[in-house]
Design brief:
The structure holds 2 protein chains of 2 kinds. Helix content of chain A is about 60%, strand content about 15%. Chain A has 11 helices and 8 strands. In chain A, about 45% of the residues are buried. Chain B has 2 domains: about 150 residues, Cupredoxins -  blue copper proteins (Immunoglobulin-like), CATH 2.60.40.420; about 120 residues, Immunoglobulin-like (Sandwich), CATH 2.60.40. Chain B is about 10% helix and about 40% strand. Chain B has a 6-stranded mixed beta sheet, with no helix packed on it. Chain B has a 5-stranded mixed beta sheet with strand order 1-5-10-9-7, with no helix packed on it. In chain B, strands 2, 3, 4, 6 and 8 form a 5-stranded mixed beta sheet that branches. In chain B, strand 3 and strand 4 form a beta hairpin. The relative contact order of chain B is 0.14. The chains are: A alpha+beta, B mainly beta. Chains A and B meet through strand 1, strand 3, strand 4, strand 7 and strand 8 of A and helix 1 and strand 4 of B.
Chain lengths: ~400, ~350
């Protein structure tokens, strides 16, 4: 693949490389000055305004909006629940492209009720937003901070560590069962990977069009996949030891699951913030049951080795801890953009880890005949998440 | 609590970031951002607490609802050889951007550049001649309620006056009858759109000798604006501009007799209504009788229904009048009488 001849970047080559760019600049200049023969004046103004979040204070509502259209947008009227309402906009009712503003309404809202807000631009284009359940948005106080920490602890850290506690018991198992467990881990990860990807796609719809949510998923996922693959190859070159390699994979699983939990924490924090959910006991129990399998996934590759207690603890923190971070971010500054990015990174990491596990299993399969172990293992892993999901409903 | 699965849970998390509003494509001609309008945004609503916003640019609109109340158009008057009074009007349909609410421009269709169109007023038996020209880029008509020959009905299929093409004109001519309160509007299709964009006005036919004298006569045409073209009104008003008489209360004196010519031409909604605070009025449905049908403080009108209200105030004060479809009131159909000694 590599070219054996080394060519120096001569002045001539440099000039030739630059030529199309100079020509391009000329074409653009020509187009901008003449319109290139096209009639590009649109009959209707194209305006777009995204409501990124809302904050409810006692007796007032703040809507955080972003202009995602190609031109300036001026907010001229605001209607809330079918009533024209006085409002103010900071810093200015005229919002530049990709600019942000806060629309403030002195509106005495009622706890627990729903509100529909319509903002009209000066071109009479309506932008709608919804407040499904009204309650005072938690402000970053010590108490809410601790609350979000607890949420992350329950849905991320505790279940992952509970899973890791299986380590001593699972070590007693035979080689074949261990391979089965690895396959099950791959199954778990496939399920989680799909779940993460679906979440990313869902958030991508909420990202302003100019930020290209779907493209962002591609960048996050592919880059993460290739980066982890490169790291893994580099590691093999350096150490070469089979057990080091398995430990590296376990660490990567922890990283992948960590990003997954970060995304989950973001979603939970945001949902909790706008009152879409209350974290009921039942729900927390459901989370612990389902996420315990994530801890299992982390230890599966290293069952035949003797990782230190400290190493296991670090991997548990990497896998579960980000749920806390996610809950903080989601709770205080929900951003679909960040959610998409983190979820895409999570998906990329998870799929890369599946690839690594597949390679490990392949080595085991070369040593002994295990025709149905992989099939039943992967299926078991996927079914485990599916069925625990069913039980939670 | 209601059990939620993890999937639902996360889905809900997605919802939490608020359904973002996409760009609404519009088929709107002539609409360009008006930079000077941005300063209207903060509230400067008049004497009342509650919903409402500031003033629109009446000068630029070319009409002021305060004037609309009383500018009865008796036409150019002459006498026909047979002794009949002839009232001649020149009315042109025009596309016009109207600031219907502070900062919001609506690409309206108008008669003579105003909404509602001129209040045409005659006495029963007068000859009405309307030289109608279409200065707009869509075919329009003028369809009057009242007696007239079919060819003067202003409805597609009724002859040359049934659809007046852009740049064309037609003269509608008929005798004003019966006496009462009527209306006119464009009858080109799609009808709802042609009406909703502003082509309507009041048509008053006085009984011979006129109605009993009163201190004030006001015209109030109830309508709404669907500014984002989703076939639902976004703003409601009497005489076109939401909250106008809330910001600029109508001054009257204690004991003065008031007559209101109330017309409903509201599109998209089934009903409209008028409620007068701290008072009762005599109501003459369609104004076709000189005997009131009802003594009440609230009337309901369907589209094209109209009636005459007569009342006076016993005590001084600020008195609200509004649609008792309260949603309409909060979206603009709200006004005040400022009653002084």
């Amino acid at each position: 693949m590599t070219q054996p001849t080394i060519t120096r970047l001569s002045f001539q080559t440099f000039g030739l490389l630059l030529l199309p760019i100079i020509l391009l600049a000329g074409v653009i200049a020509l187009f901008l000055s003449t319109g290139g023969g096209l009639t590009l004046d649109s009959a209707a103004p194209v305006e777009s305004l995204a409501i990124e979040r809302y904050v409810l204070h006692p007796k007032s509502i703040d809507l955080h909006v972003r202009n995602t259209g190609p031109e300036d947008v001026t907010i001229s009227q605001v209607v809330i629940n079918a009533a024209v309402w006085p409002f103010s906009v900071e810093p200015s009712p005229t919002i530049p492209r990709l600019g942000k503003a806060v629309v403030h309404l002195d509106y005495h809202w009622v706890y627990g009720e729903a509100y529909a807000v319509t903002m009209f631009s000066s071109n009479a284009i309506a932008f709608n937003g919804e407040i499904p359940v009204a309650f005072t948005t938690p402000q970053p106080t010590g108490r809410t901070f601790w609350g979000f920490t607890l949420i992350g602890l329950y849905v991320g850290v505790i279940p992952v560590f509970l899973g890791i506690f299986w380590f001593p018991a699972l070590r007693q198992l035979g080689r074949r069962t261990m391979t089965f467990l690895m396959a099950a881990t791959a199954g778990l990860l496939v399920f989680l990977g799909l779940d993460t990807l679906a979440e990313a796609l869902e958030f991508a719809n909420e990202v302003p069009a100019s930020f290209q949510g779907i493209g962002l998923i591609g960048i996050g996922a592919v880059a993460t996949f290739l980066l982890l693959d490169a790291i893994s190859k580099r590691q093999t070159e350096i150490t070469g030891s089979e057990s080091d390699r398995r430990l590296a994979i376990a660490s990567m699983i922890a990283v992948g699951i960590g990003f997954h939990n970060l995304g989950e924490g973001l979603a939970i924090g945001a949902a909790y913030n706008v009152g879409e959910i209350g974290l009921g006991t039942f729900l927390v129990v459901g989370f612990i049951i389902q996420n315990i399998t994530e801890g299992l996934g982390i230890i599966a590759p290293v069952l035949r080795d003797k990782p230190s207690f400290g190493r296991l603890a670090v991997m548990g923190l990497i896998g579960g801890g980000p749920a806390i971070l996610g809950a903080w971010i989601g709770g205080y500054t929900p951003s679909p953009f960040l959610a998409v990015l983190f979820l895409a990174i999570g998906a990329g990491a998870i799929f890369e880890v599946i690839y690594e596990i597949a390679k490990l299993i392949q080595r085991d399969a070369d040593k002994q005949s295990i025709p149905f172990t992989v099939f039943s293992g992967v299926l078991t892993g996927m079914m485990l998440l599916w069925v625990t999901g069913l039980l939670i409903k | 609590m209601k059990p939620i699965s993890r999937r639902d849970f996360l889905k809900v998390g997605g919802l939490a970031l608020v359904g973002a509003a996409g760009a609404t494509a519009m088929t709107q001609v002539n609409a360009k951002p008006h930079n000077h309008e941005q300063h209207h945004a903060p509230s400067q609503h008049g004497h009342t607490e509650g919903p409402g916003t500031g003033e629109v640019d009446h000068e630029k609109n070319g009409f002021n609802p305060t004037d609309t109340l009383t500018d009865f158009d008796y036409g150019e008057v002459s006498t026909l050889p047979n002794g009949q009074t002839l009232r001649e009007y020149n009315i042109t349909s025009l596309n016009k951007d109207i600031e219907v609410a502070p900062g919001i421009t609506f690409p309206a269709w108008t008669y003579n550049g105003r909404i509602p169109g001129p209040t045409i007023r005659a006495t029963e038996g007068d000859r009405i001649r309307i030289n109608f020209s279409n200065g707009s880029d869509h075919p329009h008509t003028m369809h009057f309620h009242g007696f007239h020959p079919g060819v003067m009905d202003g409805v597609p299929g009724s002859g040359p006056g049934g659809l007046v093409e852009p740049g064309q004109s037609f003269t509608y001519e008929f005798d004003a009858e019966p006496f009462g309160l009527h209306l006119y509007h464009c009858h080109a299709f799609p009808l709802a759109r042609h009406i909703a964009k502003g082509l309507y006005g009041a048509f008053i036919v006085d009984p011979p000798g006129g109605r009993p004298r009163v201190d004030h006569e006001f015209v109030m045409v109830m309508s709404g604006f669907d500014v984002d073209f989703d076939d639902e009104n976004d703003f409601y008003a009497v005489n076109a501009i939401p909250f106008h008489y809330q910001n600029r209360p109508i001054p009257i004196k204690v004991g003065e007799t008031v007559r209101i010519y109330l017309v409903n031409i509201l599109e998209f909604d089934l009903l409209n209504s008028f409620h007068l605070h701290a008072n009762f009025f005599n109501y003459y449905p369609t104004g076709t009788s000189l005997t009131p049908a009802e003594y009440t403080d609230t009337v309901i009108q369907g589209q094209a229904q109209r009636g005459i209200l007569e009342f006076s105030y016993k005590y001084p004060g600020m008195y609200m009048f509004h649609a008792h479809v309260t949603e309409f009131a909060e979206l603009g159909w709200n006004g005040m009488f400022d009653v002084t000694e």
